[in-house]
Specification:
The complex is a heterodimer of chains A (about 500) and B (about 325). Chain A contains 18 helices and 22 strands. Chain A is an alpha/beta fold. Chain B is built from 13 helices and two strands. Chain B has helices spanning about 20-35, 40-65, 75-85, 95-120, 125-145, 155-160, 170-185, 190-200, 200-205, 210-235, 245-255, 270-290, 295-315; strands spanning about 160-165, 165. The longest helix of chain B is centred in the C-terminal third of the chain and has 27 residues, at about 210-235. The two termini of chain B are about 30 Å apart. The interface of A and B includes residues 336 and 357 of A.
């Protein structure tokens, strides 16, 4: 099976002392990295740890300030991604680079379509070669199908197939399973194994630890731009791996869980909520003081549930009670006025007003509170923002500072200030720690705990299972627009959640 | 004045000295070319010319702040002028009535623009272009191409008169500037304008009805254009089908020169008004230099390019 087009050598890629600086941030600080041919090498780290920078350095998209790159035994310094590609490095980013209106084969051979002797594209050759490549991946897919008509998993295969048109020695997969079902992920793993047997060096990035244990040979962990360690996967357990990632023991990351009082009435009660196509039938209760999780794969409808509850997505059906009163035809305004806050997933697109200062960002849901007959009471607004800055220890010089210049963690804390100030009953937190460094994460977890202790019901939506497991006493799992199950107490684990997220709960 | 120099109202850090400096430079340049430029009568003339454009610009700024633009302002000005003369009134007591009708009509036009943009998702460019053409058609239909009718003599005073040496229309501009300045920079509504313009999605998610805010901005813009039309017809003295011609683009240019980004959410009313004055000063300099009037167009084009390039660079930093 192994073709002559692959070199079988150790140390396919070797980085030494790589430092990459962005204005104000050292994204990589003297990092060493090495991966061999015929190896699946996992690259692990929290968001912001430097994984993407490392990948882009390997691919030639970034040029490091310091350090050397050896590829396939030669010292190289790429000046563009094209050069590294010609040398046999292929990176598949999370966002696919596919042309939806072209066929599978055209996408696979994009830019290097086989030609006839008249210089036109030879479709016959292209289709047959595309079939060969897909066969080698063990994947049956019609090369004539349009890319927009095939599934996400198939699109991923097309991305991988693109790498095999030329000679690939190093393949980088950046969170390849983020959008896949369990069955689809299994097909992907088989394909990765085949490439490994062919001697390809595979760098595999994933947040899902069980995947690492399943397919990776070795793992390199980055933390805050530095190398945290390189290990044989077989010689580690899950907790050790997590500790390496976060740089402290797990018990120090998450505050202790607290069960909500038993006799309280739910703050939010949802029955048969529908907002097609994403929300098909969702029922649950949320209690004051509770930190509950809403888990599921990307696309399962988690954020849509939040928007449908908050009033920013139209419902077609369902009965919702907020603090014992009907909440059936809501608008965001009414939700906020009744103490229901929603910290949205994408803080730049749906959260912050980047052109405005911190104080305005904090008081945005409560403008009327600061409006007097002669205009906005700026003094009171600035004081309110100052209070939140102190309460959540936000590292900013002044409430009049630019919100756009803050770090992800501080921006997120500004939003916590905004919502916890305006809404005391309940909060939905959609990906509360996305793009935030580890230190800020720990602080945000403490904030969440504190808000629940103050009596708010909190629903956490997160793709990071570790976070859901660490924070929540109860987790609702969604699959294809429905709640497929619920786990509570000690049953809350990554495995139990993933099972509900990916297979039918009916069985 | 409600210019946002004080720290507490400045929502957006602006390079505040750039616009006054540009104005001073232009005035200095003009005075060197022709010392009589600084004579009171010439300055009065300039302000009288600047006021109607300034009033339109105040409204246009609101629309641009919420990521829109209004191409119908000039057509509306002419239509309002036709409405004003249609009364054929001679008694000055009719002036308030004429104002009320004109402003009411303008508000309806603004409402239509706003509804098209928010509820039907028509792009501001197309919506206001269409309304501009519809207004033009209505006007031509009514006047049959030859507008007639007369205005109470008091209109002449509004357009060209002076109180204590200050042009009346400039006083009107100043009053509107203060009122709208308060609205934009001090009131809760103004805050909603900035939030909506800066991030409409976030605005809705913090409970601001961004559609309403946007519609109100279009109404403000049209009402300002209507008022400007009345002052301009008073200035010109007779009505024709093209009162205010060119003001749609001039007002947008002025707003952009004044630092209000077409992408919305940033800029001040002070800046927009300065932009209007800078534009008028430039036109004046063209005349002083003895260049043909057509040169105004070339200069206008070059300024837009310069202003746009400058802001693009400022944003990139």
């Amino acid at each position: 099976m192994a073709g002559a087009w692959i070199g079988r050598r150790a140390g396919m890629i070797e980085l030494e002392g790589i430092t990459k600086v962005f204005p104000g941030v050292k994204s990589l600080d003297s990092v060493d990295f090495e991966a061999r041919s015929g190896e699946v090498h996992a690259l692990l780290g929290e968001n912001g740890a430097g994984k993407s920078t490392l990948i882009k350095t390997i691919a030639g998209a970034y040029i490091p300030e310091e350090g050397t790159i050896r590829f396939d035994g030669e010292e190289r310094s790429w000046s563009s991604p094209g050069e590294s590609k010609d040398a046999g490095i292929h990176v598949i980013y999370q966002e696919f680079v596919l042309f939806p209106e072209l066929s599978v084969a055209e996408n696979i051979f994009i830019g290097e379509a086989p030609k006839t002797r008249f210089g036109t594209i030879s479709y016959a050759t292209m289709y047959s070669r595309a079939s060969d490549i897909l066969d080698r991946l063990g994947h049956s897919l019609d090369p004539r199908a349009l890319v927009r008509e095939i599934s996400i998993a198939d699109q991923q295969m097309v991305e991988i197939a693109k790498a095999l048109v030329g000679e690939v020695k190093l393949l980088v997969l950046d969170e390849p399973t983020a959008l896949l079902s369990e069955r689809e992920a299994n097909l992907l793993f088989e394909c990765v194994m085949r490439l490994r047997e062919d001697g390809v060096c595979i760098i595999y990035i994933s947040h899902r630890l069980e995947e690492i244990f399943r397919i990776a040979d070795r793992v390199t962990v980055l933390k805050d731009g530095k190398l945290a360690g390189v290990r044989q996967v077989s010689q580690m357990d899950r907790d050790q791996l997590v500790e390496m990632m976060v740089g402290r023991e797990l018990t120090d990351v998450f505050p202790p869980k607290v069960l909500p009082g038993k006799d309280t009435a739910p703050v939010l009660s949802v029955r048969n909520l529908r907002a097609p196509p994403l929300v098909r039938d969702v029922s649950f209760d949320l209690y004051p003081g509770e930190v509950a999780g809403l888990a599921g794969l990307v696309g399962a409808g988690r954020s849509a549930v939040a928007h449908a509850l908050f009033g920013s997505l139209a419902r077609t059906d369902g009965a919702v009670m907020l603090a014992g009163e009907s909440f059936n035809n809501p608008s965001p305004r009414e939700a906020i006025d009744r103490g229901f806050g929603f910290l949205t997933e994408d803080r730049k697109a749906e959260g912050l007003m980047l052109l405005l200062d911190i104080s305005v960002n904090v008081t945005a849901p409560a403008i009327h509170e600061f409006s007097t007959g002669v205009g906005m009471n700026r003094t009171a607004e600035i004081q309110a923002a100052q209070d939140e800055i102190q309460r959540f220890r936000i590292a900013v010089p002044s409430p009049l500072g630019d919100v756009s210049k803050l770090s992800g963690g501080n921006q997120q804390k500004i939003l916590f200030g905004r919502w916890s100030r305006a809404c005391h009953r309940m909060l939905i937190l959609d990906e509360p720690t996305r793009g935030v460094d580890v230190g800020a994460k720990v602080e945000i977890y403490e904030i969440i705990r504190k808000l629940a202790d103050e009596g708010a019901g909190i629903l956490v939506i997160s793709s990071e299972l570790l976070e859901v497991v660490g924070l929540c006493t109860r987790v609702l799992v969604m699959r294809e627009g429905r709640i497929s199950g619920e786990v509570t107490g000690d049953a809350v684990s990554e495995t139990s959640i993933m099972r509900l997220a990916t297979v039918s709960a009916a069985a | 004045m409600s210019e946002p120099a004080s720290k507490s109202t400045a929502l957006v850090p602006v390079k505040r000295l750039a616009l006054p400096a540009a104005m001073l430079a232009l005035v200095g340049f003009a005075a060197v070319l022709q010392p009589s430029f600084l004579s009171p009568s010439n300055l009065q003339d300039i302000l009288t010319q600047a006021a109607p454009l300034g009033i339109v610009v105040l409204g246009q700024a609101f629309v641009v702040l919420v990521r829109g633009l209004d191409l119908s302002v000039a057509s509306l000005m002419a239509t309002v002028a036709v409405i004003a003369t249609a009364f054929n009134a001679t008694d000055d007591a009719m002036i308030p009535v004429i104002f009320a009708v004109a402003i009411g009509f303008s508000a309806l036009v603004g409402l239509t623009n706003g509804l098209l943009v928010t509820k039907r998702n028509v792009s501001p460019f197309l919506a206001t272009l269409a309304i501009m053409i519809v207004l033009q058609g209505l006007r031509f239909y009514y006047t049959q191409g030859a507008p007639a009718g007369s205005l109470p003599s008091g209109f002449r005073f509004l357009g060209t008169g002076r109180i204590a040496g200050i042009p009346v229309n400039m006083i009107a501009f100043a009053v509107l500037f203060v009122v709208l300045g308060w609205l934009l920079h001090k009131s809760a509504f103004g805050r909603k304008v900035y939030i909506t313009g800066g991030n409409p999605v976030s605005a809705d998610l913090v409970g601001i009805r961004s559609d309403r805010v946007t519609i109100l901005c279009y109404v403000i813009c049209s009402v300002m254009a209507g008022i400007a039309g009345l002052f301009l017809v008073g200035f010109v003295g007779t009505v024709d089908n093209w009162v205010g011609r060119g003001y749609e683009l001039d007002s947008i240019v002025a707003v952009v020169i004044g630092g209000v980004a077409l992408s919305g959410g940033t800029g001040t009313l002070w800046g927009a008004a300065s932009g209007a004055l800078i534009l008028i000063l430039l036109f004046n300099i063209v005349i002083i230099l003895g260049l043909p009037v057509q040169a105004q167009l070339i200069i206008k084009g070059i300024i837009i390019i310069f202003a746009a390039a400058l802001f693009a660079r400022a944003r990139a930093q």
